[in-house]
Request: fold
Amino acid sequence: MRVGCPKEIKNHEYRVGLTPGAVREYVAHGHEVLVETKAGAGIGADDDAYRAAGARIVPTAADIFQKSDMVVKVKEPQPAEWAQLRDGQILYTYLHLAPDPEQTKGLLASGVTAIAYETVTDERGGLPLLAPMSEVAGRLSIQAGATALQKANGGRGILLGGVPGVLPAKVAVIGGGVVGLHAARMAAGLGADVSILDRSIPRLRQLDDLFGGRVHTRYSTIDALEEEVFSADLVIGAVLIPGAAAPKLVTREMLSGMKKGAVIVDVAIDQGGCFETSHATTHSDPTYEVDGVVHYCVANMPGAVPVTSAHALNNATLHYGLQLADKGLKAIAEDRHLRAGLNVHKGRITNQPVADALGYESYAPEAVLNVA
Ligand SMILES: NC(=O)C1=CN([C@@H]2O[C@H](COP(=O)(O)OP(=O)(O)OC[C@H]3O[C@@H](n4cnc5c(N)ncnc54)[C@H](O)[C@@H]3O)[C@@H](O)[C@H]2O)C=CC1
Ligand SMILES: CC(=O)C(=O)O
Ligand SMILES: [Mg+2]
Reply:
């Protein structure tokens, strides 16, 4: 198969779909790999590093989209990209379709077969291609929150860990999955007073064990949520219902009960966000204020640390990427975890939560794949 990797074009997105190390693996499997010139510039991998790994460097993204059987990316295709996708081609990348009707229309019109990293599953019920970026975003959320809390940046001017004799900041983490765990670990490490809210009691038990009592765990009712959010200096939004639009847990009304200068970091923004007042921002203009509360809602946070993120992402995507390259659609038909990742195929939505969120009919992957 011919596998292609364009340079990412989203705002301040420096990750790359294939690292030179991943290219070498595809080539070792007998595949031809095309990489757009400078695609790896953001992680310090120049064209020569890709050539040494066995890739052919092409001058434009159009070369990648025209010539590749499978396109491997990081972020959801931008309008200029989805216009170039086509029937018979596989797209392997993050999609986040539920909050994005325009992109969904574009993908449906193209006829492409699109696997969303964020809905591929594993044997343990996890989301293995989302997890590494959630680890990064969870950790980054505390760095972003700590920066936004500084007075000159619009925050209330509190140091997360306090100092001896002065209380630390309060951090509320809504959603105790991968993002939540890593956010709580960083916040607790800095000395903040941390609470994690989740709807899963088994998960709260696990977190309690992991932190040995160092963070508070709370079952997420409206009461508990209000109490934590109203007293917090920093709130991290980290809930997920896989594939679906994020539930709006913190309403505009609740915002008025928060401290002035408090900060929210809505990591769940890529699924539409879990604060009613959230809208996606970019690395070049990451924050805005509503009712005196600073909002940070960057939808591609890991793009800020591409050296770490691109390698962590490739570690996770390589296994399924090789299967797709080796077997094409058959890989999806044979593997239920890849089927869970299939969101769009030849003009049809194949993921129930995405279809529900956007008002489309959903087709079972098994019913539309049609492979012998
Ligand atoms: N902005 C960015 O750059 C990035 C965003 N993300 C996003 O972060 C979000 C979280 O991802 P993960 O931690 O990997 O998901 P996860 O599935 O590991 O964790 C989500 C947690 O939310 C909990 N939850 C669901 N509904 C809830 C509710 N009503 N109240 C409280 N908890 C609830 C679940 O029980 C689960 O523990 C996702 O939307 C993901 O796409 C991930 C990486 C980067
Ligand atoms: C998960 C995701 O959307 C990202 O890493 O950008
Ligand atoms: Mg994102």
